[in-house]
C-alpha cells in the first residue's frame, strides 16, 4: 500500500506532480479560460464580493497566507488570512459581500468548522477548499473547490498542501477572470503557466539527492532557521513546521525583512539557516534577500540557499545551493516547498523517527 516506499510520506511527496495535475484537470478550458462550475458560487455572487477572509490551521494556513498574495494581485480584492482558532474568538467585521474561504485537507478540523459557523452567523459567503469528499466542511459551506490530491495518510501534509496552492491560484485567477481586473492578459498567461506546474514539480523531485545528503549531515543540529520574503515567507513557515513536527527540532520561519528587528540576534557560527530566494525577475525583492544572506553569513551562519537554477548572484554567499526551476513568483511555492519537505522527512528519518506518525500528533484534529 506504500507503493514500495518505506513511508507514506515519501510516497505522497513523490505523488505531487500527479496530485497537482489532477487538481488542474478539467478546470482549464480549450479556450484557455477557467471553469469552476462545481464551486456552486455564481459569477454574479463573486462580482459582489468586496473582501476575502481565509481561515485555516497548520499547513493549510500557510496555503492561505500564499493565497493572499495571489488574490490581492490578480483578483484585486482585499484579503485577510486568519488562524481559524483565533478568528473564531474575535469579532471580525463581515457582511454578505465578504467571502470566507476555509482551507482544510481533512474537512474535519474542528477549529476550521467553528470558524465557518462563526462566519455564517454574520451572513458571509462560504467557500471550502477541501481534499476529502463527503467530509463535514463542504456541507457547512455554500460552495466547495476540491483538491484532488488523493488520500493523504502521513500526518505531515505534503501533496495536500501543493494542491491547496493550486486551488487558491485557481480561485484568484478565476475571480480575476470574472471581475475582469486590470491584469487580464497576465491572468490569461498565468493560467497557461499554471498548467505547466506538474512538470516543474517533477523536475524538482528529480534533483533531491543533495538535499537528502544535507539533511542527514544536519541530524545532530539543535535548531534550524528558515527565511523568506513575499510568498517565500509562508514557505519558510511551512519548512519550519515540517521540521518541528517530524524531527522534533527547534525550527522557526521568519520574514527576512524582520531579521534586523530581532531574529538576527539568534545567528551564531554554524547555525543552519535556510533561505528561500525569489526569482531574479523580481529584482528589488531578490536583491534584498541576497543582502540578508550576506548579513547572516557575515555572522557565521551556515547558509542553505534555495534559488532559481542559474541564479549565480547567490553563489558566493551560499554554503549549499539548491536550484529550483524558474517559474513565476506567485507559483514559486510549488517548487520551493518540495526541497523543504524532503529535507524534514530525511532528517527525521536519520534521527530514527517514524515520519508517518510523529509523536503527539493526529492526522485530523477534531477537537478545539
Ligand atoms: O485537515 P486540515 O488541513 O484542516 O489540517 C490542518 C492542520 O492540522 C494540518 O495542516 C497540520 O498542521 C499538518 N500536520 C501539517 O503537516
Automatic annotation (TrEMBL):
It is found in: Cytoplasm. Its EC number is 2.6.1.16. GO terms for molecular function: carbohydrate derivative binding; glutamine-fructose-6-phosphate transaminase (isomerizing) activity. Coiled coil: none annotated. GO terms for biological process: carbohydrate metabolic process; fructose 6-phosphate metabolic process; protein N-linked glycosylation; UDP-N-acetylglucosamine metabolic process. Residues 42-181, 214-358 form the SIS domain. The keyword Repeat applies. One of its GO terms (cellular component) is cytosol. Keywords: Aminotransferase, Cytoplasm, Glutamine amidotransferase, Repeat, Transferase. It catalyses: D-fructose 6-phosphate + L-glutamine = D-glucosamine 6-phosphate + L-glutamate. The keyword Manganese does not apply. It comes from the Bacteria. The active site is at 363 (for fru-6p isomerization activity). Its main location: cytoplasm. Homodimer. Catalyzes the first step in hexosamine metabolism, converting fructose-6P into glucosamine-6P using glutamine as a nitrogen source. This is Glutamine--fructose-6-phosphate aminotransferase [isomerizing]. The chain holds residues 247 to 614 of 614 of the full protein.
